[in-house]
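Priority: medium. Attachment 1 of 2:
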């Protein structure tokens, strides 16, 4: 039952109230609340459908070494065919999908904590990256991306002496 339907059962609205200036605003707010809560109401979707459509965001580490920028991203339950990595001069985009097993459709879970669904992550890249030399590997549920720095960026780095005042 939607929020608006619950509200109407609790407090009937008179004809006079409907004609007031605030009625259109109240209707709009009720519709917004309906849209907000509808994805979590069990009557709209089964638990399996909710889990299948959840958005997930794998955790990552970004490491700055002398010669490259490295990204390590957790992707348990996925394989190389589930992942797409695109790079251009300004961004790295990683998309993927972790699918539920077809056999899971008729199972009545008592608890469900494993995330399933699609994700997309876009990471802005510094101009010092040589995108033509980027490499991507996948091993044991970890995606590893190595993006070398341009030689002039590596040479331009220098350590500053910290002086006390």
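Attachment 2 of 2:
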């Amino acid at each position: 039952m939607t929020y608006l339907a619950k509200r109407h059962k609790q407090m009937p609205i008179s004809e006079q109230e409907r004609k007031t200036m605030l009625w259109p605003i109240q209707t709009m707010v009720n519709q917004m609340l309906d849209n907000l809560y509808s994805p979590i109401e069990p009557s709209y979707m089964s638990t399996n459908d909710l889990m299948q459509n959840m958005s997930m965001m794998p955790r990552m580490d970004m490491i700055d070494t002398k010669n490259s920028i490295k990204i390590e991203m957790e992707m348990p339950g996925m394989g190389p065919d589930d992942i797409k990595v695109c790079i251009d001069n300004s961004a790295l985009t990683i998309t993927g999908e972790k699918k539920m097993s077809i056999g899971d459709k008729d199972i009545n879970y008592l608890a469900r904590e494993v995330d399933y669904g699609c994700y997309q992550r876009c990471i802005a890249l510094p101009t010092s990256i040589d995108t033509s030399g980027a490499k991507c590997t996948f091993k044991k549920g970890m995606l590893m991306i190595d993006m070398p720095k341009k030689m002039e960026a590596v040479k331009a780095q220098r350590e500053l002496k910290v002086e006390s005042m």
